[in-house]
Amino acid sequence: MAAAHLAVTQAVNVLDAGSLLSAFGALGVAVVLFAETGLLVGFFLPGDSLLFTAGLLCAGDSGRSVHLSLWQVLVAAVAGALLGAQTGYWIGRRGGRPLLARSRSKKLHEGAARAEQLLERYGHAKAVVLARFVPVVRTVLNPLAGVLEVPVRTFTVWQVAGGLVWTVGLTLGGYALGSSVPNVDRYLLPLVALVVLVSLIPIALEARRARARRTSEGTTP
């Protein structure tokens, strides 16, 4: 039995939401969201697709191979996302910019640049909420807010607000779809791919606006 469990654990694909949920259930949701939002090394983890897939697996026939409890998933998701963001903030507050400077990940540094743009353009409150919905940025913005000494109360209030909307919204969205569409499991991979694509829209829009601003500045006499 122990050998079989070890084999299953070793076979887990941390980039695949279905694999994570099959192996660890609601606990996996909490751990992944904590790592993605609180630790810089977690920027590659599938937060959006994990929440949506977990919601799907809470709906429908309890006799399926993987069936999760909705209330357990919601509690795990909220706890992981809120504790992770607050941890990331304090890491940034105490560790400073050298934490980011030591990373060689181009994607992480690009995320840091977008996070700074969000803070500068939208202000602390709105940026903290919006960052929840942008992959990589939601990982980097929390420690960056600590580095930039965003007031603790401001950060805490708005990261809780954004975290609740993000986790509960995506989970219930998956649950609602799973409850209304028979045998939705057959379409799990396309649905997850769609969620990932939708989550990239804010990045694409921000990049488009940035190019437009640069073009405008370049043509201004």
Task: Report what the structure shows.
The protein is mainly α. It is 77% helix and 0% strand. It has 10 helices and no strands. The chain has helices at 2-10, 17-38, 47-58, 70-95, 98-101, 106-131, 137-147, 152-180, 188-199, 201-219. Helix 2 runs parallel beside helix 4. The radius of gyration is 18 Å and the shape is globular. The N and C termini lie far apart (74 Å).
List the helices and strands and how they pair.
Layout: H1 2-10, H2 17-38, H3 47-58, H4 70-95, H5 98-101, H6 106-131, H7 137-147, H8 152-180, H9 188-199, H10 201-219
Helix pairs in contact: 2-3, 2-4, 3-8, 3-9, 4-7, 4-8, 6-7, 6-8
Could you give a short description of this structure?
77% of the residues lie in helices and 0% in strands.
What are its keywords?
10 helices; single chain; 221 residues; mainly alpha
Strand content: under 5%
User: How would the global form be characterised?
Assistant: globular
* Total helical elements: 10
The run of helices and strands is HHHHHHHHHH
Please tally the β strands and state the result. Answer: 0
Instruction: List the uncertain runs.
Output: 1-10
Instruction: Report the major sheet.
Output: none
Gyration radius, in Å? 18 Å
Helix and strand content put the structural class at: mainly alpha
End-to-end distance, in Å? Answer: 74 Å
In terms of quaternary structure, the protein is single chain
Mean of all residue-level pLDDT scores: 79
Helicity, as a percent range: over 70%
